[in-house]
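Re-running the complex after MR caught last week's input typo. The corrected sequence lines follow. Everything else is unchanged.
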Amino acid sequence: MAAKCKRPARKCFKSNFRIYRGDEIALGPGKVELLRHIFETGSISEASRRMGMSYNRAWLLVRTMNRCFKEPLVSASRGGDRHGGAQLTGFGKQVLTLYQRLESKFLAATRQPVSQILARLRN
Amino acid sequence: MAAKCKRPARKCFKSNFRIYRGDEIALGPGKVELLRHIFETGSISEASRRMGMSYNRAWLLVRTMNRCFKEPLVSASRGGDRHGGAQLTGFGKQVLTLYQRLESKFLAATRQPVSQILARLRN
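Corrected-run output:
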């Protein structure tokens, strides 16, 4: 999710992007956040905790991403005492980098018209 | 709504933007489409018909936009035989133009990373 603004901002701009493969969301704000946390923590379990999401839900999102892309984005083994470890694959890192480029290009390109629209809102 | 793709595309990218004022959506995909139709037709009634939306709903969206911005975007009189006429104000045309600029800048800036991500999806 790019340019998300938090309450209690009176005026804000929100955007979101989703990549679909058929009916499935291959990549969206939640899945990208999950990838970032997996990259940082090396663990689906810890990533899900940070997001306030159940381990099962996080695992489901990972499975969907891995199924939608030509190669898996996350390499992980389910279960075990510590629910196994998890890493982004090289391919997963590529996709995450592309998404981050998408976000930063988006922010740079839209900053001016967005601020001009926000300036026209009542306070 | 920028870059919205239609079924039955197997792979697609969808995005949307919303401008909030407090809890209200001052501008989003539906409201912008409504503004475009009002601009083209000079009528909220005809604009709502084109969108498959009730007249009351369209009127509600117009009221919300007019309330959120410093000046009204649409000048209209409700009711009467032909539900009155409606026009974008000069201020409304400015805001619509800014939104269109936002969309086109967005599309130009994101085309490359989007196509690179889509190319990594399974067929």
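None of the earlier attempt is carried over here. Chain B has a mean pLDDT of 89. The longest helix of chain B spans residues 90-118.
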